[in-house]
Design a protein that fits this description.
This protein has a single domain, classed as Glutaredoxin. Strand 6 and strand 7 (127-133) form a beta hairpin. By secondary structure, it is α/β, with parallel strands linked by helices. It has five helices and seven strands, in the order αβββαβαβαββα. Strands 3-5-4-6-7 form a five-stranded mixed beta sheet, with helices on both faces. A two-stranded antiparallel sheet has the order 1-2.
Length: 149
């Protein structure tokens, strides 16, 4: 097997616990893969909390669909959508769901040009593939994410 064939059959996945980048064979994504460094689950079916230290690596290195909820502590619609976002994450365990608090981690949020809150941005391999602003119920979040696969 050549290196390019190997690349096509596996994906990079950032550990939500230690931020180590793992290469996971695509056929193992359904098998709850574990981090090679810390042994925690790589796909948690729950939103990962991003910080200044973890936001860039999670967004840039994950080759699986990664949905980031950009929110702020003062934003009432953001608080209303938080449990809906968590529910959507439970329904789509092979998608990485993450949250970035823009008023606490301004430096991490700045490159993504967020103009309204809440805003969900879908990334794959560091590239933005879609954006959705406004609070949504979980079933609409799930529909939107499924439309991106």
């Amino acid at each position: 097997m050549t290196g390019s064939q190997s690349t096509q059959q596996s994906l990079h996945l950032v550990c939500p616990n230690c931020a180590a980048t793992n290469r996971i064979p695509t056929e193992r994504l359904n098998q709850v893969p574990k981090c090679g460094k810390c042994q925690n689950s790589l796909l948690t079916a729950a939103p990962v909390v991003l910080t200044d230290k973890t936001a860039h690596i999670t967004i840039q290195k994950n080759e699986v669909l990664t949905i980031v909820d950009f929110w702020a502590s003062w934003c009432q619609p953001c608080h209303m959508m938080a449990p809906e976002f968590e529910q959507a994450a439970k329904q789509l365990p092979q998608v990485v769901f993450a949250k970035l608090q823009t008023d606490q981690f301004e430096r991490a949020a700045a490159p993504y040009n967020i103009r309204s809150l809440p805003t969900m941005v879908a990334f794959r391999g560091g590239m933005e593939v879609a954006r959705q602003s406004g609070a949504l119920p979980s079933h609409h979040i799930v529909q939107w994410v499924q439309s991106l696969r």
